Amino acid sequence: MPQHTGTPVILALDAGGTMTDAFVVDDTGSFTIGKAQTTPHDESLGVVESFRDALHYWDVTAEQAGPHLRAVVYSGTSMLNRLLERTSDERIGVIVTAGMEDYLQLERSVQTYAGYAYSDRLHVVTHIHNEPLVPRARIKGVRGRVSFFGEEVLPLYADEAKEAVNSLLDQSVTAIVVSLLYSYRDPSHEQEVAKIAAEVMASRGVDIPVIVSSTSTPVRGDLARLNTLLVEVYAARPSRRQLQAVGERLHSELDSTAAVRVLTSYGGTVSPDHESLVSTLVSGPIGGILGARRLAELYETSNVICSDVGGTSFDVGLISERQVATRTEPTVARFLLAIPTIAMDSIGAGTGTRVRVDPAVRRVTLGPDSAGSRLGMSWEPGGESVPSITDCDLVLGYLNPDYFLGGSVDLDPDRARKAILEQLAKPLGSSNVEETALGVVRLLETEMRDHLMGMILGMGYAPENYQMFAYGGGGPLHAAGYVGSLEFQAVRVPSWAAAFSAFGCACADYTYRYDRSVDILVPPAGSREQVLGLLRQTWSELEQRILADAARDGIDPKEVNIVPSVRMQYFGMLDDLEVQVSSQSGDAEQVIAQMMVDFDSLFEKIFARAAKSPESGYFLTKAIAVGTYPTEKPVIPEFVLGSKTPSSSAEKSSRKVFEGSWREARIYEMDELTSGNVIAGPAVVEAPATTFYVPTGYQATLDRFRVFELTRS
Amino acid sequence: MTTISTDLSQSPPAGNSPSLIEKMALSKRQYEETGHYKGIDQLRLKQTDHFRYERVWAELRGALVSARETALHISASPIVRNIGELCFALYTPEGDSVVVSTGIITHVHTMSEGIKYMISQAYEDSPGIKEGDIFCNNDPTLGNVHTTDVHTIIPLFYEGELIGWAGGVAHQVDIGAGTPGHDPVASANRYEDGFYVTCEKVGSNHQLHKDWQIRAGLSTRTPVYWALDEKCRIAGCYIVKEALDRVIASEGIDYVRQFMDEAVEEGRQIFLARIKERLVPGIYETASFFDAPYADKAWHPEARIDYLMHAPLTLTIGAGGQFHMSMDGASAPVPMPFNASEGSMQGALWVLLTQTLIYDGKVNDGAYLAAGHNFPAGTWCNAQDHSLAYGSPWAFLIPSFTGLFRLLSRGYFARGFREEIVTGYGFTGDPLQGGGFLADGKTYFPVSNFELCAVGLGARGTMDGLDAAYAMWNPEADMGDAEVWETIESGLLYLSRRYKPDTAGYGRYRGGSGWEALRYVHGVQALQLYSFREGRVFHGGAGLYGGYPNSADYKVRVHNTNMAQLAAARKPYPLGEADPSDSELERLVQGEFLRTNEGMMFPEAFGDGDLFLSLFSGGPGYGDPLERDPQSVARDVLGHVYLPETAERAFGVVVRTSGDEMVVDEAATKTARENLRLRRSARAVSYEEFYARERELITTGQLSSPVRQMYQQSMHLSPSWAAKFKQFWNLPDTFSL
């Protein structure tokens, strides 16, 4: 690697349960990656260590780099782990509409198989309820009912609210969550409960947070809304101190003045002081989409399909017309949540996917479970007893047993070969290990391709409309396979594929998003003034919240770009789509008419044309406002295109790969390749963190951004 | 070896293709002669290139799943959208399913019956089967379950020749029956079942016919839902068509034809292999019952009877994995909407098997071929009389199939697959249905939501049953949000959704708990409500190995309440009825109480301020309740699964409250359990004594009228069952009841 000359300016962090990765970018766009053990009691320690580790490759100290940092972006799994392992210290008390106290025991049924693979969703003996975040004794009901129309049908029983608060305080709760039916339509009952809680707490000299749904999550759907508040208090907020501590330590030890920002599931970043930290609960796979969006700008393309092959899953997301689709009720850790989340579809197909032959029916099954970090049979210390995709890749010659993770992990091809022979080939009546391994890999890639196709068709497009970006540790290895015969505009594999998600995190802007259920019927005919009036009023409320957030985070409100949007559906349907509102000023007729036109065209693309149903009118489910403030992003350096032929130092050796028959493949070192080089298949390009396989009939050209373009030769 | 199917797979010259009737007859004959689908005894494609075969499978399956996912978004009815009551399948030209989507799998075979009907009725000649045609069916006598399940079927063509079918089914909230809702109780004949569509051509050139749209729009109470659900089914069918076209483009038409046939045969072989793996060969027997006390409530004179449904079930497992189930001895059809067609029984068989034996999703009509069955003609489970009512066959079908879970569980037990054991399930009857108008007098709202899909699952072989989260007809249960249901049922507010104590069957592992919802009528101009659940006694859910059945339903509603006065004075209003013997309802609210000890209720008018309690079933138990861990019982009491007195009476566990906790009184529990065992011993009689006593009841005719009629019907309809009955009870050949 050449002598490093740039100044480190961006630090992106991915704090997993075991290791914290640091991705450091300098002002020329060069980057370096470091690792350190995650330190759960004080994450800031691991963060600084990881930063130091990354910088040592550049021969720079953290103290030298700290003052120059302009952006620090954090994503991590500590909140998710706290939720999965039920290790929070929070003792939450809950107040709901009387009679509904069994929410967490009933779980709307749907959480009993949430997150299961299809076969287990059918296989009913496997369904189980989750351990509730709050025991039944700390969930109190208060009488009173507001209807769907926002009418107070039964008044709030204030005495019961008082009794509930007292009872919860008697149980030493650390926070009280309030979610009453239809509070998003009429918040007065919740406000009254909050007022009573404040009075009771004052009289008892207690001060704990009281979170009401009509303020923090004013959306329809009682279970997801309650879950969201609970997860916020139970899992997300306990991380706030940790996140603040990261910024403090970077400042006190390394003299950094950069604000620490946390990645959200909707694809922007917020400060650790953000009220709704639950929106940062899941951000891992989101990074890749943001990275892809950044690359898409360089390639001046509007439609990109993002494919991320990890050890356990294959995640696909779409950028269509420069927009990333958002979903509003994701399932995370078997909880239905009401948080806007970038639409990503995952299947349990990754490099660690375990492969078996069903003995009774002699059919191959892939996963859905995975060896994960235990890799497969070829890595004896992992203790696996079933072959994985990695084992297949190894016996096919695609992976280098001596250079896996840069040689830090020794793989044993003979163990893989034996496992494939005994457990897969023989039960299928074959003795050919390589044929079997190839069949397995092709089957996996077919499943991946179906998944891609389903997602593209689901958005109303064809592969021809898209460029495909392949990344993740396993993306470069399988991209040619899962693209197959699909005619994408281009297939691109970034040379930094393994660190692509971290790169994407570093690209995230400050983004504040607020949703509110509105439930407005827009009949086929009639005045639009009232409709737009209601929307404007809601947007204005949401805008105020965004501006308050910006002010808190030290951002000039004038610099925040706020875009209003709605979620809408045909009246009678139950599934909504998000439509950006290009302009909310002007004639109400025109503004609403434009929304309808935009919705019609989006609907027509995504669903069948025949299903368009404007005859009964439209239904506006949510008003949304998104405020964005651009921040420092990695520069993607541009290199001069040089020779098509790689330098002799780049070509390391050759190795036999199996593609139906054995072929001699050239082996390259990725770091030694330069822009303009063309690699003809069969070839394997190796890097410490990833392996790029170029099959016979394909070629890969390293372009000026150090991204490979894979084409058929 | 060359199979006949290989010849078929070679495209004959255009114009000389055999007709669909000929193809179907040939396929049937080949199966009968060879025991293999279309005579395919070798899975040539799979053997030649195992992985290519699997890839084509994966591609088609992926397409069906995404067809369903996309169509779900288009659908209107909450039942389809929220609960996923929708599925799609790809069929061979003869109407045998090859690949199926996720969703309500019951229907994969029901649509097959519809296609076969159209073929056998020579639809090729009239009304013609052409590219771009759209067919619709919901007739239970042609394979469907009940009229509210509506099928859309399109033929698929390649270069002018029919190469298969795509079908989609979705459940409607209303089908224009004599009473609103989706599971009627009051209809007594076909002419009250609602809108019937009998394999009708409703579109051509890829467009629905205008006259059809008009007729359908006028035929149900919820035309918007009808139209949107039909769009969703059509859209899904076209996604399947496009996927098949893609696979043909990549693999070639010959491969695809052969694949479709081999996949069906493989489905058959897989089923046999799985049975052989999981079950011990032999003959397994059980019986299930369901009572319909209609003498005091039916609208039609002929229906004023108290009827007891009899579902004897014999399962025969062969050494090679052969499977055969028989309901020989089933009782007679009824002038009630509970009759089942053979197709609906086949659908039920299918949906249960895919939850317990063949859940990997690699399932198709091959499994149907392998799952031999006998639903005797002329009985309630294969009435063969189109003039009967079929609106709610679930009433008999759901309890009758609890027997299959019990029998399979015995087989699993014998083989050592204890974790596969499920004792049965609660009755997914619909305790609250109807429809009404909001106060504006114009806005109609249907009452038929699908929270009923969250009943208790029976206890499992290694743990308790699943609480409030199971439906036998769709394992992906979702009770839905109260806030979502009230957007539709805006005149019926939830005052509660909570566990109902004592609904779960007792056992070492208890059944899953049921639950209750109290609804408050508000802001309506007119409303009628009725209830479809079991009668007084039977729901099918017997326990296993000493476990108890779940509780039966009862009904309570309160008219003309003082709710408004209570609310004005901030006096507590009721939230349900945890303990009927100390009724919260009766303690807190005044009004006209209507209470019956049965779950069936005919339509009744309701007005503002009225209350209606919906009860949802629990599941049966497994093993002796006296062997249940006392700490588990304490947790049950804390979680409102059992009342404290039930813990003592049924489990012999004495608990007391201690702060937030429920603690077991160890000494009192020991005594209580000893006493219960002593009481059991005191009641115990030898088998011989029991047999003699029961035999005397039969020989002296001391049977209640519904029981006597049930046995009379079974003996009359099945001489073989009558002979078995007489042999068991050692009765003379001349014996009659």
Radius of gyration of chain B: 27 Å
User: What is the CATH domain class of the largest domain in chain A?
Assistant: Alpha Beta
* Overall morphology of chain B: globular
Poorly predicted ranges of chain B? 1-14
Query: Mind summarizing the main beta sheet of chain A?
Result: 9 strands, mixed
The main sheet of chain B comes to: 7 strands, antiparallel
In total, the number of domains of chain A comes to: 5
- The count of β-strands of chain B is 23
Report how far the terminal alpha carbons of chain B are from each other: 58 Å
Tell me the number of helical segments of chain B per DSSP (H or I, 4 or more residues long): 22
| Quaternary structure classification | heterodimer
Q: Provide the residue-averaged pLDDT of chain A.
A: 91
Measured by DSSP, the beta-strand proportion of chain A falls in 25-35%
Structural class of chain B: alpha+beta
Shape of chain A: globular
Alpha-carbon Rg of chain A, integer: 27 Å
SS content category of chain A: alpha+beta
Mean pLDDT across all amino acids of chain B: 91
Pick out the low-confidence regions of chain A.
Answer: none
Number of strands of chain A: 35
Report the helical percentage of chain B.
Answer: 25-40%
Give a structural overview:
The complex is a heterodimer of chains A (713) and B (737). Chain A has 713 residues and is α+β, with helices and mostly antiparallel strands. Chain A folds into five domains: 8-79 and 239-280, Nucleotidyltransferase, domain 5 (2-Layer Sandwich); 91-236, Rossmann fold (3-Layer(aba) Sandwich), CATH 3.40.50; 302-488, Nucleotidyltransferase, domain 5, CATH 3.30.420; 510-629, Dna Ligase, domain 1 (2-Layer Sandwich), CATH 3.30.1490; 651-712, no CATH class. Chain A is 31% helix and 26% strand. In chain A, strands 13, 14, 15, 20, 23, 24, 31, 34 and 35 form a nine-stranded mixed β-sheet that branches. In chain A, helix 6 crosses helix 7 (188-204) and helix 13 packs across helix 14 (433-458). Chain B has four domains: 35-269, no CATH class; 422-623, no CATH class; 627-683, no CATH class; 687-728, no CATH class. Chain B is globular, with a radius of gyration of 27 Å. The interface between A and B is large, with 86 and 98 residues.
